[in-house]
Amino acid sequence: MKTETTIQGLTASLNPARASRKIIGFVPTMGNLHEGHLNLVREARKLCDVVVVSIFVNPIQFGPNEDFENYPRTLEQDSRLLADVGCDIIFAPTVEQMYGKQPRLTNISVADITQDLCGASRPGHFDGVAVVVTKLFNIVQPNYAFFGEKDYQQLTVIRQFVRDLNIPLEVIGVPITRAADGLALSSRNGYLTEAQRAAAPAIYRSLKQAEQNLHEGQALSDVLQTIKTSLTEAGFEEDYVEARTPQLQPVTAFEQDTMLFVAAKLGSTRLIDNLLVKYIE
Ligand code: AMP
Q1: Does the pLDDT at position 281 exceed 90?
Q2: Which of 101, 118, 130, 175 could form a disulfide with 108 if both were Cys (CB 3.0 to 4.6 A apart)?
Q3: How far away, in angstroms, is 150 Cα from ligand 1 center?
Q4: pTM for the whole thing?
Q5: Is 156 in the pocket of ligand 1 (CB under 6 A)?
């Protein structure tokens, strides 16, 4: 496994693979890797000849009061984990390597589907994601790119701009990896105190309860209210609890496959999760 910190170095490392038409898989991350990230790499390993993982904490997707400065940076540990799952190349550029010294005048902004859910409480976040992911796509030029369904809105936004801009690669969504108690794995779980970590699985529990309630015929609005109540009782401060189609369009009744989305804070740590509830006629 190689680690490249410059675009030039990465290009030199990838050129032989490109010349021999190897299938290149790409997993973008912000590092501090856990099993969720590693499962993306394992999926990439199955489909691709060469697997590239980027580790880059992207400043422009963080809001002014978010955790950019404190975001955990653990490159040595990440490298060991990636070597074990068969990553070929780590791309770990500096902010200057990615953004240069000249001001950036170009933005990539996906309308409509970025406006609510996480977009509402994180203005500009998805523009920052779209810009960095597009830059990384252009640098790596993969055949396949792998993203987790944990960040389902992000995955949908990426699929949208890849289609809109004819970016020549296939986006693969990978299911959420959870801890044994159901908590979706996240680098931000490391911010939780012991007591908060013990409370955190309430998100997934409330989503699974909601699934059962919907299958038993309870009204969607009541089911969403029950999730909110459970989260408040577990000590969360709700950001949103919403139901959408898998394409992120609003739904008012459970009459089709429906996704439930939660974002909620425990102290200052914001956690997100989602669940697809299948509609059974
Ligand atoms: P991040 O490092 O948080 O930017 O995440 C990098 C990629 O890993 C994104 O595509 C995330 O959706 C994905 N990811 C993070 N946590 C999980 C998880 N628990 N299950 C599946 N994918 C995940």
Answers
A1: no
A2: 130
A3: 6
A4: 0.98
A5: no
Whether residue 202 sits in one domain with residue 156: no
Exposed, middle or buried by CB within 10 Å (0-12, 13-18, 19+), for 43? buried
CATH code for position 138: 3.40.50.620
Q: How far apart are CA 179 and CA 85, in angstroms?
A: 19
The token duo for 117 is 């859910």
pLDDT, tens digit (0-9, with 9 covering 90-100), for 111-159: 999 999 999 999 999 999 999 999 999 999 999 999 999 999 999 999 9
Which amino acid belongs to residue 250?
Answer: P
Does 177 contact ligand 1 (Cβ within 6 A)?
yes
**Shortest-distance atom of ligand 1 to CA 32:** 2
Instruction: List the CATH number of the domain containing 255.
Output: 3.30.1300.10
Count the Cβ atoms, other than its own, within 10 Å of residue 256.
Answer: 12
- Phi-psi label, residue 166: left if phi above 0, alpha if psi -120 to 50, beta otherwise: left
Residue 225 within any structural domain of the chain: yes
